[in-house]
Automatic annotation (TrEMBL), chain B:
<protein>
    <recommendedName>
        <fullName>DNA-binding protein</fullName>
    </recommendedName>
</protein>
<dbReference type="InterPro" id="IPR052513">
    <property type="entry name" value="Thioester_dehydratase-like"/>
</dbReference>
<feature type="domain" description="ChsH2 C-terminal OB-fold">
    <location>
        <begin position="53"/>
        <end position="113"/>
    </location>
</feature>
<dbReference type="InterPro" id="IPR002878">
    <property type="entry name" value="ChsH2_C"/>
</dbReference>
<dbReference type="Pfam" id="PF12172">
    <property type="entry name" value="zf-ChsH2"/>
</dbReference>
<dbReference type="InterPro" id="IPR022002">
    <property type="entry name" value="ChsH2_Znr"/>
</dbReference>
<feature type="domain" description="ChsH2 rubredoxin-like zinc ribbon">
    <location>
        <begin position="16"/>
        <end position="47"/>
    </location>
</feature>
<dbReference type="InterPro" id="IPR012340">
    <property type="entry name" value="NA-bd_OB-fold"/>
</dbReference>
<dbReference type="Pfam" id="PF01796">
    <property type="entry name" value="OB_ChsH2_C"/>
</dbReference>
Amino acid sequence: MPKRLLAFSDQTAIAGVGYTPFAKNSGVSTLTLACRAVLAALDDAGLSVDEVDGLATHRVGDSAAPTLVGPALGLMDLSWHLDQFGGGSVSHAVVGQAALAVATGMAETVVCYRAINARSEFRMGGTGRGVPVSPEVQYQAPYGYVAPPQQYAMYARAHMLKYGTKAEHFGLLAVTQRANAAKNPRALMRTPITLDDYLAGRWIAEPFRLLDCCLETDGACAVVVTTAERARALRRPPVLISAAAWGGGTTHLSGAGADPTVTAAAALAPRLYAQAGIGPGDVDVAELYDCFTYSVIVQLEDYGFCAKGEGGPYVASGATAAGGPLPVNTHGGFLSEGYVHGMNHIAEAVSQLRGDAGERQVPGAEVALSTAQPGYILPATSALILRRA
Amino acid sequence: MAGYRPERDRDSREWWERIGRGEFAVQVCDACGTARFPARAFCARCRTEGAHWREVAPEGVVESWIVNHQPFVPGLRAPYVVVMVRLAEVPGCFVYGNWRGLRPPEHGERVTASYTRVDADLTLVDWRPGP
């Protein structure tokens, strides 16, 4: 049975968040973006750069490592750093690992960041770079099967075939998140859309249309992890890290017995909830990894908010909209705010729990779930439960 | 087709060589008999090394498919269909290929490998309807 981890749960906190503006072309290096976001997060927390003793990031060879960012900010002797290979699967694992480092005393103040020029320099699986190096690519790329929208579209269709999930379900999710983005000054796409707009979108890889896909974005986002005790003495209301969990996933080819409509989140979720001592019914707001519309629908099922196969109708019911029982991606998500590879979902959860999310604030939000890519493509996933102190 | 040529590695070379001869074979664990794909050194079930190759029926059923409306890899012409096939004789394993049917695939339909010889060094596995 999964259990509470008393040495970990609520021992650390997120004390600050920082962003650069999101853009199609930042005009600067990822090193510059990383430094700006780190400084912004420290300023939000009310900490000086010299108080930082740890840095962590995730990347796929496309961005500045902590060993570059540290010296660039005059931090020549970090106690702890992490350069995690991986994409959206590991975004939340980075913050989880920073929390482990802080909980054990290996470091006291860790800034986790993701800096990315995902539109102007280095498009994921798209033009502008070679095919990613993984032994399984050789069985897919010769057939023109290589980019994340294709891979997610394949799984989305499997879900449609098995459970009757409809294009309209994906569309209503995109519409809902755009309505949230309309209330978010940071968001790249703030003009409301309708279901007809969604359905009129051009095909990318059927069953995905344009608005099923996230925004390739230039930008950076950072969060400051420190001890809960220290966070209480800082400028902002602390947000406790109640649970952090890591999970597996399926590869494209070799997931023995794999059901492509179930993600690794289904196995991770019980561990995650047990750590925090809560269940899905206790979650007030969820910031779920939305590289594509389908990603949210399958996670709503696998994190236990609705029955398997019911993710589409759950979204269509309005449950995930502002004012519903489970507001999801209140910032607009990758689909409408911008794509900073998971870090902006964590930062939005922090804003919601601090109560400073402005027009898009979920009233009285006390517990947030935030998740990484649920384990398709790269066989890994991760998630956090955050709680108002 | 084949805007991208597969980078064979030390685990996969033999699989590609056999495909080049029109032979659809997978590794079978010497110790426990579990079939696996793609090729690699260890059996994930009994965690031992040692395997032999066994020719299996180049057949499966359609699990899913996508219709690509842009050439995601240079050299391909859109639209093209990629199909995800659940192999009949290798439980839990999927393969991908281009669709060689004159109509769209159907969920759960039986399909058979169709070899596409690109040149002397490369043959790809596509899929067509029917046993």
